[in-house]
Amino acid sequence: MWYATNMMNRVILASFLLAGVARCYDYDEVLRLSLMFYEAQRSGHLPVNNRIPWRADSATTDKGQNGEDLSGGYYDAGDFVKFGFTMASTTTILAWGYLSYKDAYEEVNEWENALGSIRWAAEYFIKCHVSDYEFYGQVGDFSLDQGFWGRPEDMNMSRPSYKIDKNRPGSDLAGETSAALSAVSMVFTKIDSNFSASCLSHAKQLYMFATQYRGLYHDAIKGAAQYYESTDYGDELTWAAAWLYKATKESQYLDDAEYMYMKYRLKERPNEFYYNKKVAGVQALLAELTNQSEYTEAIQNFCDYNLYVQKKTPKGLLYIEKSGTLCHAANIVFLCLQAADIGIMSAQYRAFAKYQIDYILGDGGQSYVVGFGKNYPLQPHHAASSCLDRPAPCDWEAYRSPKPNPQVLYGALVSGPDENDNYKDLREEYIYNEVTLDYNAGFQSAVAGLKQLELRASRHKAMMDANGLQLSSNATDA
């Protein structure tokens, strides 16, 4: 394990612990805004309670190769391709956060919106799973999409669909979607039993597809390799098995997960956790499910490494790579909050998480969440929000405009600063101002975790105050 063995590491740890008594941010508002970002990314027929006034129905005729209805789901980023791999990864992490921190969402009156956000994705995945061994993993062609800058409601380009099947399998895509649907099924168990059962049925079928027909999804869906390459599928298969065990408590899935954990050598310490690297997530989930030292030590190694050793910016932000700087940091601290919840280095990891999230919300010099705080990004790299209200035209002139985006993309987490805390709020600088589905997932779930800790502390204080009053009353009576 990694430990603080020198003065620098002790200073780092002290700064994280002091963050617990530093300024407080409105996590309630952050959760509300992040959920609005997901609503702004919706594709298909929007619900009657749509809260994004500058969005309307779009891509309602998305179809599979045999005419299957593939409307719905989420646009991936500032463009209008629907990438199933990252959408599924996003959904798994959001559902995990909902399962872990339900009280936080209920406290801020966002539970219904939270349910709607993951149901929107799950219903789309069920549409895409057109038969036991066929799953549509992408709608839209990125090369065609990149030639268009405007509103999704105004798209007129071809939107081809791409799938995996027996002849062109994608164990990573099928496995991740299985995990997502398992997690969603648990969220809806007591809310909508029929929908929960449907999600779990598809999760089991997709897991069977993933294990029986092996392959990388981008070998079947060629366009995905350039943007969301998958380098392995062993982590997704293990991830899927672990989530199925969590959802069903059927021992065969835990047996599968533990076998594949060894087969694919997942016990080694990874450096990151994101859509292409699930190993740390597998370690955290198996630690929760089994409490075995093999897994608890693995996730502690991961968190300790990131707390004490991993590169950080001068202001203390975890730095993995420039693309999605803030997403990487948020994903890691979400996992470390999960570790803290099962009793691993709880005080240290929670302070670490607060430090990183509060950097994102303003401690780093500005807010990196659109619409939150006094100094937030004004030009996120996002086509639809760069457009004026309809019916005004929107094209590449909007992209080149030096003005702030006319529509506020509330809740979107931008890619973030570089390794020296430098940041450029420019639309064309996508390396700083890109927004994506997966950027917000671990971030939102970590914020929910911090909100739940605040709620727990508040309840504890109220209980102590009440006990103090009772003791005082008893003394007076005596």
UniProtKB/TrEMBL annotation:
Quick check: keyword Hydrolase in the entry? Answer: yes
Molecular function terms in GO for this entry? cellulase activity
Q: Which residues form the Glycoside hydrolase family domain?
A: 27-446
Cross-referenced SUPFAM superfamilies: Six-hairpin glycosidases
Per UniProt, the keywords (alphabetical) are: Carbohydrate metabolism, Cellulose degradation, Glycosidase, Hydrolase, Polysaccharide degradation, Signal
Sorted alphabetically, the Gene Ontology BP terms of this entry are:
cellulose catabolic process
The name on file for this protein is: Endoglucanase
Q: Which organism is it from?
A: Acyrthosiphon pisum (Pea aphid)
